[in-house]
Design brief:
The protein has 475 residues and is mainly beta. Helices cover 9% and strands 41% of the residues. The strands form 2 sheets. The chain has a 16-stranded antiparallel beta barrel with strand order 2-3-4-5-6-7-8-9-10-11-12-13-14-17-18-19.
Length: 475
């Protein structure tokens, strides 16, 4: 039978084109796999190549068009290991609260049961007290992204038998429930600019601006808030239910230069003068016409910044702190009221070192003793220092403290004697202290003990004091 040439020629062309078409189909399949993510949980269809190989295992592999391989992904950079040697038994507790769009509210508690055994400078034996040094309920929150608020109450020294610190008529109800802080914050540019308004701590020394729940020792330095050795009055007219350095006002906070420079400046209520009633030859005057109290602080952070309202006595290695600061707090008055002044400088170091964390801070402050006086006001100076080391493997911090209060002498009351003598109403004082802190859960739960040897001039003799404190805190 004679075959036509045209059909034979067509079959030959198809045979020649088949390998190219098959290669094109394989190349298209490979590209689509690179462009789209596949679900590995589903079975993948077999490629044409695998089907043909199965059907004809001896068939030679057909050439595949070369494809460009995606560049190899760079290996993931491993996260640097933390250089913080301190690891508590559990991480800090998350705040208890409610968060909704554009608002949040959180709650916290601070409890500090304490045992105190103390002697006296002019009496024998020792007093012994079991009491709550602080019991605070705290509330904070946010509104939109620009506003914050903070509020807490305190019943300090609850059930402490101390006649100098009693307001309710009996020793075991001193000094009463009080509002400790109550302020709102506007932060239009985050930590860069903040404005606080309400009842708060004015700019002052670093130790005085630390949170009572995050101190290194059992308490603040004695002379940070104390203005009288014999009672709890302060030069701004507060006594008994003392605000412990707080005042009502408005404050601006700045954190610039990448967090290396912090500034605080505020206007506060201070002491207000009394009205003057009309009398013969005297024109009546309204009260409260005097200017407000002004305070400011500047801090240089050589390492990490402290952007919060409250500083900390130690950050337990979560921050590297090496900072210097200074402050000035005053209220100018008209005669016969003298001008109130309170000023000083401070430094703090809190860094991981070896198998633990070294912490040290020092404050030097000066103040006049009383704002209401017709006489020249003497100036007191206090030197305060603290140093310790947290041994991370055992979570213990041995530490030492020293405080020196230098009060001015007065003229010798003995007319037959010249020179000056120590003022019995404003004595000088030295405090030599040492202690130990156990940090199983950081600031959330810890135990601290402090022993102090105190000398005063003038005073009949020295005395000792021991404080043992257990803290429970979450916020």
């Amino acid at each position: 039978m004679k075959l036509s040439r045209r059909p034979l020629a067509a079959l030959a062309v198809v045979a020649l084109l088949l390998p190219g078409l098959r290669a094109f189909a394989q190349t298209s399949s490979s590209s689509s796999a690179d462009e789209f993510e596949q679900d590995d949980s589903k079975p993948k269809p077999k490629s044409d190549k695998s089907e043909e190989t199965t059907a004809n295992p001896e068939a030679p592999a057909e050439p595949v068009a070369p494809t460009r391989r995606a560049p190899a992904a760079a290996p993931a950079t491993p996260k640097p290991a933390s250089d913080n040697p301190y690891v508590p038994f559990a991480p800090p507790i998350s705040p208890l609260g409610i968060d909704v769009p554009n608002a949040s509210i959180h709650f916290g508690l601070l409890a500090q049961p304490q045992l105190e055994v103390a002697g006296g400078p002019d009496a024998s034996l020792t007093s012994k007290n079991l009491f709550l040094r602080r019991i605070r309920f705290m509330v904070s929150g946010t509104l939109y992204k620009y506003f914050e608020f903070f509020f807490d109450t305190d019943y300090p020294n609850l059930f402490k038998n101390d006649s100098a610190d009693t307001m309710a008529g009996t020793y075991k109800n001193a000094p009463g429930l009080s509002i400790q802080d109550a302020y709102i914050t506007f932060k239009p540019l985050g930590d860069l600019i903040k404005v606080d308004a309400g009842f708060m701590l004015p700019p002052g020394p670093h130790n005085g601006l630390e949170s009572a729940a995050k101190l290194y020792s059992t308490d603040y330095f004695v002379n940070i808030f104390r203005r009288s050795i014999f009672n709890d009055s302060d030069p701004l007219g507060s006594a008994g239910q003392s605000p412990v350095g707080r005042d009502l006002g408005v404050q601006l906070r700045l954190l610039v230069l990448g967090g290396h420079l912090e500034a605080r400046a505020g206007v506060f209520q201070g002491i207000r003068n009394n009205p003057v009633p009309a009398s013969t030859g005297v024109i009546a005057e309204v009260g409260d016409y005097n200017i407000f109290r002004l305070a400011g602080r500047v801090q240089v952070n050589l390492l990490d910044a402290e952007p919060g309202f409250f500083y900390q006595g130690t950050y337990h290695g979560t921050k590297k702190i090496f900072s210097f600061g200074g402050f000035y707090d005053f209220q100018s008055q008209q005669a016969p009221i003298t001008t109130y002044k309170y000023y000083g400088g401070d430094a703090i170091l809190d860094l991981p070192l070896g198998p633990g964390i070294v912490t040290a801070q020092a404050d030097i402050v000066r103040w006049n003793d009383e704002i209401i006086s017709e006489m020249p006001v003497p100036t007191n100076t206090a030197y305060m220092a603290q140093a310790g080391y947290l041994i991370a493997p055992i979570m213990l911090s041995p530490f030492v403290q020293y405080e020196r209060l230098v009060a001015p002498n007065i003229a010798n009351p003995d007319p037959t004697m010249s020179g000056t003598v120590a003022d019995p109403t404003n004595p000088s004082e030295n405090r030599y202290s040492g202690g130990l802190s156990f940090w199983p859960y950081g600031h959330n739960m810890n135990l601290k003990v402090l022993g102090a040897h105190v000398t005063r001039n003038p005073a009949p003799h020295a005395f000792n004091q021991i404080n043992l404190q257990w803290q429970l805190y979450f916020f």
